[in-house]
UniProtKB/TrEMBL annotation:
Coiled coil: none annotated. Residues 110-217 form the TonB-dependent receptor plug domain. SUPFAM superfamilies: Carboxypeptidase regulatory domain-like (SSF49464), Porins (SSF56935). It comes from Aquirufa novilacunae. It is a multi-pass membrane protein. This is TonB-dependent receptor. Gene3D superfamilies: Carboxypeptidase-like, regulatory domain (2.60.40.1120), TonB-dependent receptor, beta-barrel domain (2.40.170.20), TonB-dependent receptor, plug domain (2.170.130.10). Belongs to the TonB-dependent receptor family. It holds the Pfam family CarbopepD_reg_2. It comes from the Bacteria. Residues 334-747 form the TonB-dependent receptor-like beta-barrel domain.
Length: 790
C-alpha cells in the first residue's frame, strides 16, 4: 500500500511537471545586452502572461512544450519554446513601430490603475457599421446608448456613470473631445473603428493625458500600424433598418525600404430604429509613413461627413406605456398641434417628434496629424507631433408659429413658421510632445505635454421666410497648455512605484450673443495641478496587488457658462483612490479593482431648464462614487472561453437641492432631497462573453446587464430608467484563403428597453408636473457582413 501511494504521488508530480512548470528567463537587447524592463511574455494560446522586471527577468508557469510570445515596443517580436527561454534576445526593429506614439499617455502593468486593452482584432469582430461606443459596450463599467436606437448616428458612452464630457478621448495622443462642450461626437468619425489598431480604456482619473480632464475614464486610440507588405481589404455589411456599410482599405507595403501608404474609404447608411432617424455617413482615412532606423514620421488625414435626421427629442413616457389617456394629457398640457398629436397617437416605440422633412444635422470634420518619433540615443527618444482640425456645419430646424421678436424684428408681435439653421464653424490646432527615458534598471521616465488652441464661431441664419437673416453670433477662444512628468520606479524585486504630476492651464473667452439674444461676455482662466501616485507589489509569479491616489480637475463647459450667466460655474475637482488585486494562471485571469472617487464642486443636473429647454447643471459641494469592478477570463477548454465583468457601485450626492420653476409666480422653488443617487449611474453593470470555436467557425454569446438609472438627482422612482438585459449572438466563419463572414444577432430575446432619457418638472396651477422622455432601443435586429483581405 505504501509503495502504491508513493508511486501515485510520483506519477502526479511527473504529470504536473509535464503540464506546468516554473519557467524563468531573461529578456535583453541583442546588441547592447541590456535587460529590457516591461517586455511582455505570454504563453501562446492561453490566458497566461507576465512582464519582465527592471532586471529583465520573468517567471511564469507553463508546460515544458509551450511556446512563449515575447514583445517589446521598438523591437521585433519573437516566439520561443519554453524549454529554451532562459535567455531571450530581442532585436531592435529596423522600423520604429507606431506603438511608440501612444505609450506616453497609456497605462501599463506598473501604473497601479484600472484599464482594459482591445486589439484591432477584438474591435473588428463586431465592426459591421455601429459606432465605436457600441464596440466597447462589453468592457467593464461601460454603458452605451444610441439616439436612433440602432447604434448608428448619435451614440454615447458612459464610464462608471460619468458622461461623455468627463471621458477623455485621444487619437494617437491627440485630443478629440470638443473643446467647448467637452464631449465626443462619434457621428463625426463614422467607421473610425476600421482604422484603429488598438484601444485602451482607462477607468477613473487614469494617467496624465492631453485635452479635457478625465473624470470617469479615457479612451485612447491608436490608428493603423506598420504594414510591411502590400494589402487590400473590402468589407461590406447590411441588415435591419436599411443599414448598409461599405469599406475599402488598402496599403502599399514598404516602398524603397522606408515609406508606406495606407488608405480607407467608407460609407454607412441607415434608416434607424426610430422613425425618420436616418444617417448618411461618409468617411476617409489616409496615412503616409516614413520609417527610418532612428526616426519615424507619419502623416494622418481622416475626415467624416454626416447627415443625420434629428432624433434628439426623445419619446414621452406615455407613448412608451401606450396609455391613450396619458398621451392625450401630454398633448393638452404641451399644446401640440393636431398634426403633432396625430403623430404621437399613431406611432409606437419608434415615435419621433420631428416631422419636417429636412430636420437634419449636417457636419463635416477634417483632421490632420503629423506624428513623429526620434531615437536620440539608446536611452532617450522624443515624440513630437502637430495637429489641425477644421469643423463646420449646421443643424436645420422647423419652428412653427415662432415669435419674430426672437429673431431681431423689434416691436413685432407676428408669429410665423420659421426654418432656421444654427451653425458652428471651428478650428482646433496645436502640438503634443513626449520625451522618454528607458536607459536605467531603476526608472523609466517621460516628460510630456501639449499646447492646443480652439476658435469657435456660433451663429444662426434664417432660411425662411427671411433667407440669410442672421439673428445671433458669438465667438469663443480656448487655449489649453499642459505639462506632465511621469515615471515608473523600481524599488525592489517585488515593488514598483508610479509617480505622475501634471500642471494644466486653461484660458477660455466668449463674447457675442447666443439664441434668444443672451449676451455672452466671459473671460476665465484656470490653473490645475494633478498629482498621481501608485504602488505595485508582486506577490508571486501569478499575482500582484496595487493601489493609487490621483487628483483630477476640469473646467466648466460652454453650456455651463451660457446657463449660469448670472454667476460663473466653478471648476470641478476629484480625488480618485484605487486598489486592486490581479491573478493569472495558465487558463484564467482575475482582476478585482476597488475605487472611491470623491468630488468637489461636481457639476450636476439641477432639475431646471434654460430658455431653450436644455437641462441646467450647477455645482454641488460634495459627491462621490464608491465601487468594485471584477473581471474574470477562463479558458474552459481548448474550444471554449468565458469572459465576464461585474461592477457594483454606490454613487451619491451629499445634500442635493432640486430647483423647480413655479409658472404661477415664475419663482424658483428649492427642494432639499438630502443624500441622493447621481443621475445615470447604475449600481450594477455586468458584461458576459462566451466564445466557442472549432476550426474556421466561432460562435459567441454576448450579454449585458445595466441596473436601474435615475434620470435626475432626486432618487425619485418615477423618474428612472428600468434595468435591462440584452443578449447578442455573433457567428463568424472564415473560408480558407477567402472571405470572412460575420452574422451579428442583436437583442435576440427582443428586450423592450430604453438606455437613456431625461426629465424635468415644474409647478403650474398649484400642482407639480413631471415630464419623462426616453430613448427606446431596437428589439431583435441583425447585421450580416463579409470581408476579404488580399
Amino acid at each position: 500500500m505504501k509503495k502504491a501511494t508513493t508511486l501515485i504521488i510520483t506519477l502526479i508530480v511527473c504529470v504536473q511537471s509535464l503540464f506546468a512548470q516554473k519557467i524563468q528567463g531573461l529578456v535583453f537587447d541583442q546588441d547592447t545586452k541590456a535587460p529590457l524592463w516591461g517586455a511582455s511574455v505570454s504563453v501562446k494560446g492561453s490566458q497566461k502572461g507576465n512582464v519582465t522586471d527592471a532586471k529583465g527577468h520573468f517567471i511564469l508557469s507553463a508546460p515544458s512544450d509551450a511556446v512563449l510570445q515575447v514583445r517589446f515596443v521598438g523591437y521585433d517580436p519573437v516566439e520561443v519554446k519554453a524549454s529554451q527561454s532562459n535567455n531571450i534576445s530581442l532585436k531592435k526593429s529596423n522600423y520604429l513601430q507606431d506603438e511608440v506614439v501612444v505609450r506616453a499617455t497609456r497605462a501599463d502593468e506598473n501604473s497601479a490603475m484600472a484599464y482594459s486593452n482591445m486589439s484591432a482584432e477584438e474591435v473588428g469582430k463586431s465592426n459591421l457599421g455601429q459606432d465605436m461606443p457600441m464596440l466597447l459596450n462589453f468592457t467593464p463599467s461601460v454603458v452605451t446608448t444610441s439616439d436612433a436606437g440602432a447604434g448608428i448616428g448619435y451614440t454615447g458612452i458612459r464610464i462608471r456613470g460619468s458622461d461623455a464630457t468627463r471621458v477623455n478621448v485621444t487619437v494617437n495622443g491627440i485630443p478629440i473631445n470638443d473643446s467647448e462642450s467637452q464631449g465626443t461626437f462619434w457621428v463625426n468619425m463614422p467607421d473610425f473603428a476600421s482604422s484603429v489598431n488598438s484601444v485602451q480604456i482607462q477607468r477613473g482619473v487614469g494617467t496624465s493625458t492631453n485635452g479635457a480632464g478625465a473624470f470617469g475614464g479615457s479612451v485612447n486610440m491608436q490608428t493603423n500600424t506598420f504594414e510591411s507588405k502590400a494589402y487590400g481589404e473590402v468589407h461590406a455589411s447590411g441588415g435591419s433598418f436599411g443599414t448598409l456599410k461599405t469599406t475599402i482599405k488598402g496599403g502599399s507595403g514598404l516602398l524603397g525600404g522606408k515609406f508606406t501608404l495606407d488608405g480607407r474609404l467608407s460609407r454607412i447608411v441607415s434608416d434607424g430604429f426610430i422613425d425618420r432617424a436616418s444617417s448618411n455617413l461618409l468617411s476617409a482615412y489616409f496615412s503616409a509613413g516614413y520609417f527610418g532606423k532612428k526616426s519615424f514620421a507619419r502623416f494622418n488625414y481622416f475626415t467624416g461627413n454626416e447627415k443625420t435626421y434629428q432624433s434628439w427629442y426623445g419619446t414621452p413616457e406615455s407613448r412608451i406605456t401606450g396609455s391613450v389617456a396619458d398621451m392625450q394629457a401630454f398633448i393638452d398640457r404641451n399644446y401640440l398641434s393636431p398634426q403633432d398629436a396625430d403623430n404621437l397617437l399613431k406611432s409606437g416605440r419608434t415615435y419621433n417628434y420631428y416631422t419636417y422633412d429636412n430636420q437634419t444635422d449636417n457636419y463635416a470634420q477634417d483632421h490632420f496629424q503629423l506624428i513623429t518619433n526620434h531615437r536620440l540615443t539608446e536611452a532617450w527618444n522624443l515624440d513630437l507631433n502637430a495637429h489641425y482640425t477644421y469643423g463646420r456645419g449646421y443643424y436645420e430646424e422647423f419652428k412653427p408659429a415662432a415669435d419674430l421678436i426672437n429673431y431681431g424684428f423689434a416691436n413685432s408681435l407676428r408669429s410665423v413658421d420659421v426654418i432656421r439653421r444654427k451653425w458652428l464653424d471651428n478650428d482646433f490646432y496645436g502640438s503634443t510632445f513626449a520625451l522618454n527615458y528607458t536607459g536605467s534598471q531603476k526608472i523609466k521616465f517621460t516628460f510630456g505635454g501639449a499646447w492646443n488652441r480652439y476658435v469657435g464661431r456660433h451663429f444662426g441664419v434664417l432660411q425662411d421666410p427671411f433667407p440669410g437673416r442672421e439673428w445671433y453670433r458669438s465667438r469663443s477662444q480656448k487655449t489649453d497648455l499642459n505639462l506632465y512628468a511621469k515615471g515608473n520606479i523600481n524599488l525592489s524585486a517585488a515593488w514598483n512605484a508610479y509617480v505622475d504630476v501634471q500642471y494644466r492651464t486653461v484660458g477660455y473667452r466668449m463674447f457675442g450673443t447666443a439664441d434668444k439674444f443672451l449676451n455672452l461676455n466671459s473671460d476665465n482662466s484656470y490653473s490645475f495641478f494633478n498629482p498621481k501616485f501608485g504602488l505595485t507589489h508582486q506577490l508571486s509569479e501569478k499575482s500582484k496587488v496595487y493601489g493609487s491616489v490621483s487628483a483630477g480637475s476640469k473646467e466648466p463647459s460652454r453650456q455651463d457658462f451660457v446657463d449660469n450667466a448670472a454667476g460663473n460655474p466653478r471648476p470641478e475637482y476629484l480625488q480618485d483612490y484605487e486598489v486592486g488585486y490581479e491573478r493569472s494562471g495558465r487558463r484564467y485571469g482575475l482582476q478585482i479593482n476597488g475605487y472611491f472617487m470623491n468630488y468637489q464642486d461636481q457639476l450636476v443636473l439641477t432639475g431646471a431648464v434654460n430658455s431653450t429647454g436644455d437641462a441646467i447643471r450647477t455645482n454641488v459641494e460634495s459627491s462621490y462614487r464608491l465601487g468594485v469592478e471584477t473581471m474574470l477570463n477562463i479558458q474552459i477548454s481548448k474550444r471554449l472561453v468565458w469572459s465576464g465583468n461585474v461592477t457594483l457601485s454606490q454613487n451619491r450626492i451629499r445634500n442635493f437641492k432640486e430647483r423647480m420653476t413655479d409658472y404661477d409666480t415664475y419663482d424658483q422653488i428649492v427642494i432639499n432631497h438630502g443624500n441622493t443617487d447621481i443621475a445615470y449611474s447604475p449600481s450594477v453593470i455586468a458584461g458576459n462573453t462566451v466564445t466557442y470555436s472549432v476550426g474556421s467557425f466561432e460562435a459567441s454569446l454576448l450579454s449585458k446587464y445595466v441596473g436601474k438609472q435615475y434620470l435626475d438627482n432626486t432618487s425619485d422612482e418615477a423618474r428612472s430608467l428600468e434595468a435591462y438585459t440584452t443578449q447578442d449572438i455573433r457567428l463568424k466563419y472564415t473560408l480558407k484563403k477567402g472571405p470572412v463572414f460575420t452574422l451579428l444577432l442583436n437583442n435576440v430575446l427582443n428586450e423592450q428597453y430604453s438606455s437613456n432619457g431625461y426629465t424635468y418638472s415644474y409647478r403650474y396651477g398649484g400642482a407639480t408636473t413631471t415630464e419623462n422622455f426616453y430613448y427606446p432601443q431596437a428589439g431583435f435586429n441583425f447585421l450580416l457582413g463579409a470581408s476579404i483581405r488580399f
